[in-house]
Write a structure and sequence with these properties.
The chain is an all-alpha fold and 535 residues long. Helix content is 76%, strand content 1%. The protein has a two-stranded antiparallel sheet. Strands 3-4 form a two-stranded antiparallel ribbon. A hairpin with a 5-residue loop joins strand 3 (182-183) and strand 4. It contains 26 helices and four strands. The chain has helices at 11-31, 36-42, 44-69, 78-93, 97-100, 102-109, 124-135, 138-151, 155-179, 193-203, 207-244, 250-266, 268-297, 302-314, 327-342, 348-353, 361-368, 370-390, 402-411, 418-448, 453-469, 473-485, 487-496, 498-513, 520-528, 530-534; strands at 72-73, 76-77, 182-183, 189-190. It is globular.
Length: 535
């Protein structure tokens, strides 16, 4: 699909525009020092009453949404079935493309097919890093621990299986996101489920339906970007630092995160991508090395831990108090935490991948299938095996949240080892915040246009700081539910356009096998050798 080229904004104009936005954002961030903190400190009763009023309103909304999304069907919540059925359908419909295209995905990420002349703003690797930074986060640390705590070690088996199926779902939504992206007058691009729904379904004769679903998705994405993907992240980072470093204040962590976020998001997807391109490998290495160290220390127990995970996936052993619901609870916990972790079916990653520099939508979809593999099959399993190896999940003496359970596992090696996890939590939180700022930004632009985007950025940066200072529980719960609800319109569009995706993948793989899809190095060699060009 091609679009007419538009006259881009000059580099000087763009530079001036971004300088103005950065100045406004930094000023607003600094003002946060003198407004929320002082208001909360000087008039505690009023501020608590205000926050309680907000929480009470959102609590009522959350209760309704929760009943809908987690409506029980044969023991399985509606949203869990919605996501897992999609994974099964697309994996079978596309002939296990998540296995067939795996090696090619690695070749693409390595840059073998990167062509700087193609339309887009970031490389395949940067798009993958940006999307990964939005998914690799507290779900890998706390979410896995909660799955094991509630469903037992066997939940890890189902979490892994859901991640495998989610690889295909990611491929489908990201292929469509890039295929139906738009190019703006300034040369930037925008894509994702909102554009897939409005443009893709319009081509099928369902224009009003697609437009309506696109609006619903965008509204949900904006709410989702503010709470669970922003305020909750900064809140957990502040808690981790305050608990690990005596004397540290939560507002300091919030201010640092807010300033860093303002600096990064002003640069747009290029700066976000370059930042995450450095951040994601760093934080993954720090966390995985920490987990591997614990595995090495407990190496003789590894076979028994793996056997425990597999056996309890089908015959869960009751801990103290039992696992109510048996195997269904184990499956639900695994699938649910997998969805929270890798966001397959949610549609968020399609927004980041839509900015990739390529004219081949399927190629970017194939890159996207690596996300659940890295996020869920590798990193989540590192957390899971570490928790099972150390036995901390068996501590039922008092209520322990997910993050604390993982911290306890790290603490079995050394008293200072939790510092490694604290640093990882900060990096995970920051990377998730900046990635979701872009997702919310694209959704805001879809609804309100580019002229008002500074309003969204101001609100977003303010939420980073506020999240570290207060804990508006129901607001964050509402945001988490809106994240899950994004899967409803997103997967409706994916089902409608599944035949289109299947045809595109068949064509792409045939061209790849027949040698009609040269690497960038092979293209250059052909251009330099007129003999080959003639052939």
């Amino acid at each position: 699909m091609t679009y007419p080229k538009k006259q881009p904004i000059s580099p000087m104009q763009l530079k001036r525009q971004r300088r103005g936005e950065l100045a406004a954002l930094l000023l607003a961030t600094l003002l946060l020092l003198f407004f929320p903190v002082r208001v909360l400190a000087q008039d505690t009763e009023t501020s608590e009453g205000f926050l309680n009023a907000i929480d009470s309103v959102f609590s009522a909304i959350v209760a309704v949404l929760f009943k809908f999304l987690f409506y029980d069907i044969g023991g399985f919540p509606l949203i869990v079935l919605w996501l897992i059925v999609a994974g099964i359908f697309f994996t079978l419909r596309l002939g296990f493309i998540n296995l067939r295209a795996f090696k090619h995905a690695i070749d693409v990420v390595r840059g073998r097919y990167d062509d700087p002349e193609e339309e887009g703003q970031v490389s395949h690797f940067q798009a993958l890093a940006t999307a990964l930074s939005g998914t690799v986060g507290l779900g890998n640390i706390a979410g896995v621990a909660v799955a094991i705590q509630v469903g037992g070690p066997g939940a890890m088996f189902w979490l892994t299986l859901a991640g495998f199926l989610g690889m295909t779902t990611k491929l489908v939504e990201c292929t469509l996101g890039l295929k139906y992206r738009i190019e703006r007058p300034d040369g930037t691009v925008a894509g994702g489920p909102a554009y897939t729904l409005s443009r893709g379904l319009r081509n099928m004769g369902f224009g009003p339906l697609g437009k309506g679903l696109g609006i619903i998705f965008s509204v949900l994405a904006i709410f989702g970007s503010m709470g669970g993907a922003n305020m909750f992240q900064s809140n957990q980072a502040a808690i981790a630092f305050v608990g690990t470093f005596p004397g540290m204040q939560g507002w300091i962590v919030g201010l640092v995160l807010a300033v860093l976020t303002a600096i990064v998001i002003i640069g747009g997807i290029e700066r976000i991508a370059s930042t995450t391109g450095l951040l994601v490998p760093a934080m993954a290495v720090i966390y995985i090395l920490g987990c591997l160290w614990i595995v090495v220390v407990n190496l003789p127990q590894v076979p028994a831990a793996i056997a425990t995970i597999i056996s309890q996936a089908f015959v869960p052993e009751a801990l103290e108090g039992g696992i109510e619901g048996g195997i269904i609870v184990v499956i639900v916990q695994g699938v649910r935490r997998s969805a929270f972790s890798n966001e397959a079916g949610i549609g968020s990653a399609a927004i980041a991948h839509s900015a990739a520099r390529t004219d081949e939508p399927v190629r970017e979809g194939i890159v996207a299938l690596l996300e659940p593999f890295i996020d869920t099959i590798i990193i989540c399993n590192m957390t899971g095996i570490m928790i099972v190896l150390t036995g901390v999940y068996q501590d039922t003496g008092e209520a322990i949240d997910g993050s604390q359970m993982t911290l306890n596992a790290f603490g079995t090696v050394s008293d200072w080892f939790p510092i490694v996890l604290t640093i990882a939590i900060f990096l995970f939180a920051f990377s998730t915040i900046i990635s979701w700022s872009y997702y919310g930004e694209i959704s805001w632009q879809y609804l309100f246009g580019q002229r008002t985007i500074i309003i969204y950025k101001l609100i977003f940066v303010a939420c980073v700081f506020i999240g570290a200072v207060v804990t508006p529980g129901a607001v964050i719960d509402f945001s988490d539910l809106t994240l899950l609800m994004m899967a409803l319109p997103n997967l409706i569009g994916a089902y409608f356009l599944s035949n289109e995706v299947a045809a595109d993948i068949k064509d792409y793989m045939e061209r790849l096998r027949s040698g009609q899809m040269p690497t960038y190095a092979e293209k250059l060699a052909t251009l330099e050798d007129p003999h080959q060009a003639g052939n």
